[in-house]
């Protein structure tokens, strides 16, 4: 025991000094640690704190719009709403109940029991209140209410007892108290789907762990307006925690079915495509051009995404503009750059008329192509049957998709370029050209038609069994005499026919800026030698009238006739006239590209043209244009407009004909002939060439020619008057891709 | 006692120093509590008002009263700790609070004071001079030791499954029983030479172990460690023989390994594992430590400015008004502000040690040392954990963290200091 009188410290002075020194050392150690964190690693932690609260949000660009030649919108973007769900922000009723029970200072087991009861009641849709506790003291109620207030918690009721200050009851309303199950129930009813349809999303949300819980899952894409209103209202009333409505854009194809094949459509990338394209700035879930212009011009139509730096709190909630400016300054990202605008050479009116005319003739399947004779630019390109790109790019149901995929008429196929047909009599101009080039045919040579062409034991009939008598080239084209062309074909042989056809662009891709184009086929010696039967004599006779081993696309037809019409220049068909940036400045203008000039004997093309013009005159196979009722107004225009038409009918057999000739209605649809008409106008100075194929419909003069004539009429009534506006100032072709036809394969 | 008498002789320097830190704490709360618990700073001012009143009141009381009441108070608080385990409120998985209707009492806070008083009393009145040995701390020949073993063996006699074979088990059971009986006889023989006193039953280790175990099973690892640290500091202040220290260190290490596998709950293990590398598990268990380090580090030298800490204001920092108050300060006031606070704390603790050095008797000196240890360990462990040097165990920062229990305990301790300081000239 220390003596009371001692003046010195009870434990001496050494101990306090050592203790004080130890304390000072410890404090120094803490300060050193601070120095290490705040000075040595200060910059690193500053970065980390910024990556905590700064979130880069992508601002999606607008895809470029597509205009017709007059600036009318064919494709643009419309606002759309997608629904997303972030698993991390879904309410967790177990946890909420636990904190509620904690605030009330009750046992945790109660929370677990309540959670089970709550989920049961929510599952049954039972709205009766569940009692959390009775006889709760005032201060516990206050603590709980603070928590309820802080968390914006719904569905908690307090029933005070007026006679007893500390005897309140606490109740929860099962149909208001937030739980993941309730959110899915409400979401399903707001979206107008069943809960089962949301089950995959629910599974995905449940399966998310760690950081993935903060990745939003897409629940629904492109909400219908009513569903959007319901979901958005519920979100703003805090009824759907974890659910977000995102404003985005959807492609809008204003002309719908009419231009579907030409414009194509877009849809979401596959994971494989994403792997391939991520370096080009594509993000998972991006849309990409799938076919048509949308695919070919993906690079031009796609813009560059912008980004925005926003301040978020620990729960990922956006903290608003003021905080953002205070913490990040004014420079908070980059605006997106929209894609380029494409101006097509296509005219929306012509496209519409093509559709209407086709429908007026009860066409089932076929194609219409209209091109500018002097430039090769495409004025209209339609294919039937069609699909709705709006559906295909957005909410298409599995049944609708299946119906399109399995339709025997193949609505996906762009028949103008991706389907090949026997050209029938429209091919006779090629035979004539071959004859003149080889010298077999002169303008004055006359051939007698007695109704058939014999070669040994083989007989080929003329379509007029009684025969045409003696004909020259002009008359042969006008009447489409088969025997005349059998003879010429036999005289020149298959290879001369093929080389004339290739000079007009057949048997090769036209190179149009669309996908899935097919080259067609022209049978020649090389081709037949690959086949088991080898070369047979009669092939040239068959091929001469466009049957046999001749297959062409409607676009090739239009380009070939345009070549004849313009005096021998084969152009490359093109669809896009201009690429413009967002200010409307022209980035690139496409000029006409001539592939080559045809070296035809003098007067040959003029002879063909005079024959083709005669086809539409009295006695010609297409004279019916002057009086046919459908499409309405067409015949009157042909009679009165003064625009001279020139063209060639074709009726291509699909099935080899037997001895007897059946009437149209006696044949099965799939066995009927294809009707062809390829035309240009005005005959004297041609501007537009049109090719029409109407599958399995019958005679070309009655089932294809009226459509072509009506499109030509629309060109003169609707398109041409506007051409003087100066919007499209066509320049003569500047480039000739291949001057010598001999360079062809 | 007149009001004047309360003020005369008060260690005003100490009081001003405490007031300075408390003011910093309240200002910091304006920012720290803004998100998680708006308005907490005003409640904290209220706690401080009560706390200062308590401190001044304690300063007026002669510490001999506390010396007299130390053991009864210790027993009562142990009783409360036991009561908490039976009837306490469970918050966040721990049973630590007694609901008194107006106030949630945390008996483990009271225990921090009770252990200071009782240990001080025990150590001040010990007969032997010089440093403590292991035997002094454990007192193996106190009859209470073998008695405990005897009781344990008898209570567990039936289900004590020690060895594989039944015969061997029985032999071991009887062997243990024999050891206990012989041990008891030795103790009884020794008692003949001792006067009957509390000290013959109680050893310093009891004063430490009983509350430590009671708090550990709440569970509250942080408070347990603080308690052990306070007691250890007081014992070390008195002095411990060097070989005893070595033995304690070795046994302590072995016990630590055993505790890891047998005593610590998975979340506590996780915390310690995470502490070793908090950045590896930044979203899981290391979240607290990691976000706190980011807050402090990103404050850099000048700080982000009052109320402008992004970690704090955007809720990345958890518990920022209680355990992580220091991180808020370091984020918003930078190295400058944080270092000033550490210097304030260091100086305050050293002043406490000075009070102990100038104390008029051993009990007062040990009380003052105990309070200094209380504040020191709180400061060191808290700042250590928020800076990622120590595991996150839930220890408050004195005068800075929000919370009535913490404030009142610390102010009570400050009162003890002032009481010791006031009477240093009294002879």
Written description of the protein model:
The complex is a heterodimer of chains A (745) and B (427). In chain A, α6 packs across α7, α6 packs antiparallel against α8 and α17 packs across α20. In chain A, β23 (576-580) and β24 (586-589) form a beta hairpin. Chain A is elongated, with a radius of gyration of 39 Å. Among the domains of chain A are: 92-172; 348-393 and 413-724, DD-peptidase/beta-lactamase superfamily (Beta-lactamase, 3-Layer(aba) Sandwich). By secondary structure, chain A is of the alpha+beta class. Chain B is mostly helical. Chain B has 2 domains: 3-128 and 203-425, no CATH class; 140-200. Chain B has a 3-stranded antiparallel β-sheet with strand order 1-2-3. In chain B, a hairpin with a 2-residue loop joins β1 (89-91) and β2. In chain B, α2 (12-36) packs antiparallel against α16 (325-357) and α14 (287-299) crosses α16. In chain B, 45% of the residues are buried. Chains A and B meet through α1 and α2 of A and β1, α14, α16 and α17 of B.
How many DSSP H or I helices of chain B? 18
The helix-strand sequence of chain B is HHHHEEEHHHHHHHHHHHHHH
Roughly what percent helix of chain A? 25-40%
- Strand residue content of chain B: under 5%
Quaternary: heterodimer
CATH-level-4 superfamily name of the domain at 348-393 and 413-724 in chain A: DD-peptidase/beta-lactamase superfamily
Summarize the main sheet of chain B.
3 strands, antiparallel
Could you name the key traits of this structure?
heterodimer, A: 745 residues, Beta-lactamase, five-stranded antiparallel beta sheet, 20% strand, B: 427 residues, mainly alpha, 2 domains, three-stranded antiparallel beta sheet, 70% helix
Secondary structure layout plus pairing:
The complex is a heterodimer of chains A (745) and B (427).
Chain A: H1 14-40, H2 42-53, E1 54-59, E2 66-67, E3 73-85, H3 93-103, H4 108-124, E4 130-136, H5 138-150, E5 156-161, E6 164-172, H6 180-191, H7 195-207, E7 217-220, H8 225-236, E8 243-253, H9 260-263, E9 266-268, H10 271-277, E10 287-289, H11 292-296, H12 298-301, E11 306-311, H13 321-328, E12 333-334, E13 341-344, H14 348-360, E14 366-372, E15 378-384, H15 389-392, H16 398-406, H17 428-438, E16 447-449, E17 452-455, E18 458-461, E19 469-471, H18 473-479, H19 482-492, H20 494-503, E20 521-522, H21 525-529, H22 539-544, E21 550-551, H23 554-565, E22 569-571, E23 576-580, E24 586-589, E25 593-597, H24 604-615, H25 634-640, E26 646-652, E27 674-681, E28 688-694, H26 700-703, H27 705-719, E29 735-736
Chain B: H1 3-7, H2 12-36, H3 40-60, H4 63-87, E1 89-91, E2 94-99, E3 104-105, H5 107-124, H6 134-138, H7 144-155, H8 166-191, H9 198-201, H10 204-216, H11 221-238, H12 242-262, H13 266-276, H14 287-299, H15 310-313, H16 325-357, H17 362-386, H18 404-422
Helix pairs in contact in B: 2-3, 2-16, 3-18, 4-5, 4-10, 5-10, 5-11, 5-17, 5-18, 7-8, 10-11, 11-17, 14-16, 16-17, 17-18
């Amino acid at each position: 025991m220390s003596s009371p009188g001692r003046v010195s410290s009870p434990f001496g002075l050494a101990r306090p000094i050592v203790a004080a020194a130890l304390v000072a050392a410890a404090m120094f150690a803490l300060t050193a640690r601070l120095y290490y964190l705040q000075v040595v690693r200060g910059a690193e932690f500053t970065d980390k704190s910024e990556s905590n609260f700064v979130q880069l949000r992508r601002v999606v660009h607008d895809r470029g719009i597509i205009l017709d030649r007059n600036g009318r919108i064919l494709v643009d973007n419309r606002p759309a709403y997608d629904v997303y769900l972030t698993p991390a922000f879904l309410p967790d009723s177990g946890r909420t109940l636990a904190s509620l029970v904690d605030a009330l200072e009750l046992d945790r087991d109660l929370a677990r029991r309540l959670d089970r009861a709550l989920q049961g009641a929510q599952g049954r849709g039972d709205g009766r209140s569940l009692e959390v506790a009775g006889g709760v003291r005032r201060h516990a109620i206050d603590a709980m209410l603070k928590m309820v207030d802080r968390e914006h918690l719904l569905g908690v009721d307090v029933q005070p007892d007026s006679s007893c200050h500390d005897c309140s009851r606490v109740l929860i309303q099962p149909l208001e108290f937030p739980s993941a199950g309730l959110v899915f129930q409400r979401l399903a009813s707001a979206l107008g789907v069943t809960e089962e349809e949301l089950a995959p999303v629910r599974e995905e949300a449940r399966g998310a762990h760690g950081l993935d819980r903060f990745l939003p899952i897409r629940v629904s894409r492109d909400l219908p307006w009513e569903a959007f209103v319901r979901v958005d209202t519920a979100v703003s009333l805090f009824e759907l925690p974890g659910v977000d409505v995102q404003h985005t854009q959807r492609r809008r194809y204003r002309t719908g079915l009419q231009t579907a094949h030409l414009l194509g459509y877009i849809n979401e990338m596959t994971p494989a495509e994403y792997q391939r394209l991520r370096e080009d700035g594509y993000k998972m879930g991006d849309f990409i051009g799938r076919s048509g212009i949308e695919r070919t011009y993906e690079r031009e139509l796609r813009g560059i995404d912008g980004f925005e730096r926003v301040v978020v709190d620990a729960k990922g909630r956006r903290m608003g503009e003021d905080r953002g400016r205070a913490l990040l300054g004014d420079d908070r990202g980059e605006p997106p750059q929209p894609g380029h605008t494409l101006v097509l050479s296509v005219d929306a009116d012509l496209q519409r008329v093509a559709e209407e005319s086709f429908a007026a003739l009860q066409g089932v399947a076929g194609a219409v192509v209209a091109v500018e004779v002097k430039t090769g630019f495409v004025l209209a390109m339609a294919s039937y049957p069609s699909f709705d790109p709006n559906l295909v790019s957005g909410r298409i149901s599995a049944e609708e998709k299946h119906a399109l995929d399995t339709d025997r008429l193949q609505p996906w196929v762009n028949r103008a370029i991706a389907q090949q047909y026997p050209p029938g009599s429209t091919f006779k101009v090629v035979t004539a050209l071959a004859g003149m080039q080889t010298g077999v045919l002169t303008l004055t040579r006359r051939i007698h038609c007695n109704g058939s062409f014999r070669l040994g034991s083989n007989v080929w009939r003329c379509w007029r069994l009684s025969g045409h008598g003696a004909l020259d080239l002009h008359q042969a084209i006008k009447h489409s005499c088969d025997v005349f062309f059998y003879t010429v074909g036999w005289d020149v042989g298959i290879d001369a026919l093929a080389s004339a056809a290739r000079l007009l662009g057949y048997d090769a891709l036209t190179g149009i800026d669309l996908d899935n184009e097919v080259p067609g086929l022209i049978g020649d010696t090389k081709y037949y030698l690959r086949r088991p039967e080898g070369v047979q004599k009669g092939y040239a006779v068959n091929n001469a009238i466009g049957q046999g081993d001749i297959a062409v696309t409607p676009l090739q037809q239009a380009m070939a006739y345009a070549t004849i019409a313009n005096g021998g220049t084969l152009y490359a068909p093109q669809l896009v006239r201009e690429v413009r940036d967002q200010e409307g400045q022209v980035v690139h203008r496409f000029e006409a590209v001539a592939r080559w000039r045809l070296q035809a004997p003098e007067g040959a093309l003029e002879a063909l043209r005079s024959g083709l013009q005669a086809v539409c005159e009295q006695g010609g196979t297409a004279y019916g244009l002057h009086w046919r009722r459908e499409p309405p107004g067409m015949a009157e225009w042909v009679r009165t407009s003064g625009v001279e038409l020139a063209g060639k009918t074709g009726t291509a057999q699909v099935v080899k004909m037997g001895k007897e000739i059946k009437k149209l209605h006696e044949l099965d649809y799939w066995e009927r002939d294809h009707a062809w008409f390829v035309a240009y106008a005005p005959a004297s100075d041609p501007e537009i060439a049109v090719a029409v194929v109407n599958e399995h419909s019958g005679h070309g003069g009655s089932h294809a020619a009226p459509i072509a004539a009506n499109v030509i009429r629309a060109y003169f009534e609707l398109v041409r008057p506007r051409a003087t506006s100066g919007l499209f100032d066509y320049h003569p072709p500047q480039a000739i891709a291949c001057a010598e036809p001999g360079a062809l394969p | 006692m007149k009001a004047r008498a309360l003020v005369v002789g008060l260690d005003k320097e100490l009081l001003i120093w405490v007031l300075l830190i408390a003011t910093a704490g309240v200002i910091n709360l304006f920012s720290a509590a803004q998100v998680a618990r708006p308005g907490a700073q005003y409640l904290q001012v209220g706690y401080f008002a009560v706390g200062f009143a308590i401190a001044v009141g304690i300063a007026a009381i002669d510490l001999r009263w506390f010396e007299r009441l130390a053991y009864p108070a210790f027993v009562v608080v142990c009783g409360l700790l036991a009561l908490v385990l039976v009837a306490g409120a469970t918050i966040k998985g721990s049973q630590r609070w007694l609901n008194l209707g107006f106030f949630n009492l945390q008996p483990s806070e009271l225990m921090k004071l009770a252990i200071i008083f009782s240990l001080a009393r025990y150590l001040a009145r010990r007969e032997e001079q010089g440093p403590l040995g292991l035997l002094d701390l454990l007192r193996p020949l106190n009859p209470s030791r073998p008695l405990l073993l005897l009781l344990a063996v008898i209570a567990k006699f039936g289900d004590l499954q020690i060895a594989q074979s039944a015969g061997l088990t029985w032999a071991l059971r009887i062997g243990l029983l024999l050891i206990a009986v012989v041990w008891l006889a030795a103790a009884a023989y020794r008692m003949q030479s001792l006067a009957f006193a509390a000290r013959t039953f109680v050893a310093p280790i009891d004063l430490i172990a009983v509350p430590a175990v009671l708090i550990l099973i709440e569970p509250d690892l942080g408070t347990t460690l603080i308690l052990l640290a306070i007691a250890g500091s007081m014992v070390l202040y008195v002095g411990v023989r060097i070989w005893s220290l070595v033995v304690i260190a070795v046994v302590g290490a072995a016990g630590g390994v055993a505790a890891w596998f047998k005593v610590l709950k998975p979340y506590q293990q996780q915390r310690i594992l995470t502490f070793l590398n908090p950045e590896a598990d930044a979203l899981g268990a290391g979240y607290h430590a990691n976000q706190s380090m980011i807050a402090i580090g990103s404050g850099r030298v000048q700080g982000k400015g009052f109320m402008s800490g992004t970690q704090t204001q955007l809720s990345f920092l958890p518990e920022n008004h209680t355990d992580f108050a220091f991180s808020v300060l370091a984020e918003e006031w930078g190295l400058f502000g944080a270092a000033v606070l550490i210097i304030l704390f260091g100086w305050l603790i050293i002043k406490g040690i000075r009070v102990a050095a100038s104390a008029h008797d051993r009990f007062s000196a040990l009380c003052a040392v105990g309070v200094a240890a209380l504040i020191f360990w709180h400061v060191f462990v808290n700042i250590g954990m928020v800076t990622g040097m120590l595991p996150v165990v839930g220890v408050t920062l004195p005068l800075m963290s929000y919370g009535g229990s913490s404030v009142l305990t610390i102010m009570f301790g400050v009162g003890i200091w002032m009481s010791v300081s006031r009477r240093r000239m009294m002879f």
